[in-house]
TrEMBL record:
Record-level GO BP terms: negative regulation of complement activation, alternative pathway; negative regulation of interleukin-2 production; negative regulation of macrophage activation; negative regulation of T cell proliferation
Protein name: VSIG4 protein
Domain Ig-like, chain residue ranges per copy: 17-112, 125-196
UniProt xrefs under SMART domains: IG, IGc2, IGv
GO molecular function ontology, one term from the record: complement component C3b binding
Recorded name of the encoding gene: Vsig4_1
InterPro entries given in the database record: Ig-like_dom, Ig-like_dom_sf, Ig-like_fold, Ig_sub, Ig_sub2, Ig_V-set, VSIG4
PANTHER family listed in its UniProt record: V-SET AND IMMUNOGLOBULIN DOMAIN CONTAINING 4, V-SET AND IMMUNOGLOBULIN DOMAIN-CONTAINING PROTEIN 4
Species annotation: Pachyramphus minor
Domain of life: Eukaryota
A Pfam family assignment: Ig_3
Coiled coil: none
C-alpha cells in the first residue's frame, strides 16, 4: 500500500488553457525514486513524453516541449502540468514510477489518467464598475471592466450606443477607462467578449 500512486481517472482540459494530471505517492526512506516517466497513448500509438532519471529531466516529444513540467524538489509528487492545450492532446496518460529498495530490487507502479480536451465558447460577459459605481461626478476618473470565461484567448471590445440605433467602437481591451469624466461621457456602453 505504501508505494501506490494516486491521482484521478479523468481530466477535462480547456483548449488553449492548462491542466494538471495528478500523480502522487507517499515517500519512504526504504525506497529511492530511480525514474519517473509520463507516457501518452493516442490513436493506438504509445510514446514517452517526459522522463526524469539520474541524468535529469528529458522531454522526448517535440510537440510537448515548453508545454509540460513535473514539480522539482517535491518528493512524492510526480504530477504533470500541460500548458497551451491542443485538441490532439486528448488521450491516455500513464505516470510510471520506478523505485530502488534498500535491498536493490526495483519496484514499478503505474497510474493512468484519461485526458479530454474541450473547446468552451466565451460566456456572456459581466461588467464591473469602478469604485464610484455607475453614477460618477464630472472630473473624476473611473473605469469599466469586462469579464468572460471560456477557452483562451478571449478578446474584448467596448462600444457606446449613439442616437439612431448606431454604436461607436470605444476601445479594444477588457478595461474602458476615463481620466477625467465630462457630462458628455454619460450614456450607454456595452462590451463584447469573443474567442476562437
Amino acid at each position: 500500500a505504501l508505494l501506490d500512486l494516486s491521482g484521478v481517472h479523468q481530466v477535462k482540459g480547456t483548449w488553449m488553457g492548462s491542466t494538471t494530471l495528478p500523480c502522487t505517492y507517499v515517500p519512504s526512506e526504504d525506497f529511492t525514486e530511480q525514474a519517473l516517466s509520463w507516457i501518452v497513448e493516442r490513436d493506438s500509438s504509445t510514446s514517452t513524453i517526459f522522463r526524469r532519471d539520474d541524468s535529469g529531466d528529458h522531454i522526448l516529444l517535440s510537440n510537448f516541449r515548453d508545454r509540460v513540467s513535473v514539480p522539482k524538489h517535491s518528493p512524492g509528487n510526480a504530477s504533470l502540468l500541460i500548458e497551451k492545450l491542443e485538441m490532439p492532446d486528448s488521450g491516455h496518460y500513464t505516470c510510471q514510477v520506478i523505485w530502488r529498495s534498500t535491498n536493490n530490487s526495483l519496484i514499478t507502479r503505474e497510474f493512468t489518467t484519461v485526458v479530454k480536451i474541450v473547446k468552451v465558447a466565451a460566456t456572456k460577459p459581466i461588467i464591473r464598475a469602478g469604485e464610484l459605481g455607475l453614477t460618477v461626478p464630472a472630473g473624476a476618473s473611473t473605469s469599466l471592466t469586462c469579464e468572460a470565461s471560456g477557452s483562451p484567448p478571449i478578446s474584448y471590445r467596448w462600444f457606446r450606443s449613439i442616437p439612431g440605433g448606431k454604436v461607436l467602437l470605444q476601445s479594444s481591451g477588457a478595461e474602458l477607462a476615463w481620466d477625467s469624466l465630462r457630462p458628455s461621457d454619460s450614456g450607454t456602453y456595452f462590451c463584447e467578449a469573443a474567442n476562437r
